[in-house]
Amino acid sequence: MMQLLYLCKNRLNQLTSNPGEIPKEISNLIELEALNLEINRLSGPLPMEIFNIPGMRKISLSYNNLSGSLPPNMCSILPNIEKLYLNSLTNLVGTIPHSISNCSKLTHLELSYNQFTSLIPNSLGYLTHLQNLTVLYLYYNPLNGMLPASTGNLSTSLRKFYGYNCKIKGRIPKDVGNLSSLLDLVLSGNNLVGSIPTSIGNLRNLQRINLSDNELTGLIGDHICKLQHLDLSVNQFSKEIPREIGGLKTLAYLSLRHNKLEGAIPDSMSNMVGLEFLDLSHNNIFGIIPKSLEKLQNLKYFNVYFNKLNGEIPSGGPFKNFPSQFFIYNEALCGSSRFSVSPCPPPSKHRSNRKKVLVLFLLLGIALVFVPSIFVFLWIRYRRGKRAPQQPDSLASITRERISYYELLQATEALSESNLIGSGSFGSVYKGVLRSGTAIAVKVFNLQLDAAFKSFDTECEVLRNLRHRNLVKVITSCSNLDFKAVVLEYIPNGSLEKYLYSHNYFLDIMQRLSIMIDVPCALEYLHHGCSSPVIYCDLKPSNVLLDQDMVAHLSDFGISKLLGQNESDLYTKTFATLGYIAPDYGLNGLVSTKCDVYSYGIMLLETFTRRRPNEFEGDLSLKQWVSYSFLEAVMDVVDVNLVTSMGNRFQKELDLVASIMKVALDCCVESPSGRTNMKDVIGMLQMKIQLLAF
């Protein structure tokens, strides 16, 4: 009789008259010991016949579309089962059977990406033979229960415990400290509260802790073991980072972002010689960045974005390579110009009282001579009516640059077609080079269109006071009766649209994800970082420009809207590009910052599927196509050129893309109030970069 049946990645047409279903005749193979039917796109109900073969030692049905629930007496009729792989059966519902304790020989249990509900059974703690490195996977099940204390009964065998995104609530039981062989503990994306139990300090073999995206509180103590990876981001940790954390010399990855940490960065962190990744962003940390951190020669990522730091940014060691975006939104950081901060004031020098008096008298003498002279000079010019000619520049308040109409013609070779780099609804953009050698982009408005006048005025009004690394920098404007133009910095690598749809260019996962973090950084600034909130209104890949470092910059503010004080929305008759328009914008012309969030969600989907939102017919949209497909088969929607890895890396990239799709769909829900805000999007996508990097 047959003992092994391995038909993974094949169809079962030869075994059944109903292709795609598991044949009931399998139960006749009474000596069958191993059944592997992974990745067959099997459908229909989970056949109970599989669980009536008492000699079965291994069952693998992962990555299929089977439905139903596990039999409650499953382990009573499969006493010899050793390996059970039932992950990614998205229609598998019900509970994890309490009879699980009867599977006393079980060494591998994989139940992730299902729809199991209710509590984790206490009987799970009696699976004393679990000993493989890939041992207990329960993630992405809506369990909605507490982690049972009996989990600590797996003390001498459990190596890896993955229970993330399971809606587990309550406290982490102190019994987890009995899992003496544990290497990885991953409980991120749950509803855990309270403090990290000190008993975790007993786990001397622990290499990785990920408790991110919970509601954990209290002080981070020194009981967190000798780790290599520690992620406590997106929690409620407060007070100071303890000095004892510097004792974690083997730690390579530390993320404490999005908490409520206060106090200073402890100087003891310079002792963490193995540290490669450190994220302290989105906290209330104040004081200076210790110069001693320059000693961390292995440090490749250092982010203190959104804190209250001041003083000089270190410039030696690993700080030579860190981008400026990791230091923005602090109170008073200063240092090298490459960090996009103000230069530090020179150290004050001691001067004698005598020198101070001399300087004071010198300044007083200069004032007595020059102030009357200046007054007389100005009075004479006033009487003669010789005022200095004014530059007709709507953006004069934000720049000292003065570029005349004739200089623009000279720079662009009289607006030559050879210098044309783009055209839009209200005009054209030309590349130019000033006499100084500076490359510029000149947006010339088509004054034959009435709407172009309003578009020019809008851009001038909106861009007058905007300053952000992810917005195209405005140099000046030029305006007379027959000519209106805005002069912008030249962004050399063109648009995101070019990189998505041209055969000559390609963006990998990390590049796309980085660009899609830059865009919400700009939107977060427009929505919440300006004196008057700005609604961008026309977010799409052609308006996202990429510089020489592939950093994204938003351009074209021609139909943007400024919100007045106490305004959260307004009506407009100007409509954006079809396919990206939020329902609340398209139906009644009501725009708010939530419309930008919707458009961003659509563009995020487009970036990872490489499908234009306006290429679908009938009632189907890009959003609907992705939401119908990606949970069952991410490969059906992702850009086919994007996921190219093999083995474990392949599944890691697929899971990453699936989680990005989820973020995108949360941005473009129908109800404006239900859309994710840009600050949370930034945090979630930064987490994806961390997962991809490690």
From TrEMBL:
Alphabetically, which GO biological process terms does the record hold?
defense response; response to other organism
Its topology with respect to the membrane? Single-pass membrane protein
Question: Which residues take part in binding ATP?
Answer: K454
Q: Which PROSITE patterns match?
A: LRR, PROTEIN_KINASE_ATP, PROTEIN_KINASE_DOM, PROTEIN_KINASE_ST
What is a GO molecular function of this protein? protein serine/threonine kinase activity
- What are the subcellular locations of this protein? Cell membrane
What's the short name of a Pfam family annotated to this entry?
Answer: Pkinase
Which reaction(s) does its UniProt entry say it catalyses?
Answer: L-seryl-[protein] + ATP = O-phospho-L-seryl-[protein] + ADP + H(+); L-threonyl-[protein] + ATP = O-phospho-L-threonyl-[protein] + ADP + H(+)
Q: Does the keyword Transport apply?
A: no
Which of UniProt's keywords are assigned here?
Answer: ATP-binding, Cell membrane, Glycoprotein, Kinase, Leucine-rich repeat, Membrane, Nucleotide-binding, Phosphoprotein, Receptor, Repeat, Serine/threonine-protein kinase, Signal, Transferase, Transmembrane, Transmembrane helix
Protein kinase domain: which residues?
Answer: 415-689
Which residues, if any, are the signal sequence? Answer: none
| Keyword match Cell membrane | yes
EC number of this enzyme: 2.7.11.1
Q: Which SMART domains match?
A: LRR_TYP, S_TKc
| Gene3D superfamilies cross-referenced by the UniProt entry | Phosphorylase Kinase, domain 1, Ribonuclease Inhibitor, Transferase(Phosphotransferase) domain 1
Gene Ontology terms: cellular component: plasma membrane
Q: Please tell me which top-level EC class this enzyme sits in.
A: transferase
Which parts pass through the membrane?
A: 357-380
**Full protein name:** non-specific serine/threonine protein kinase
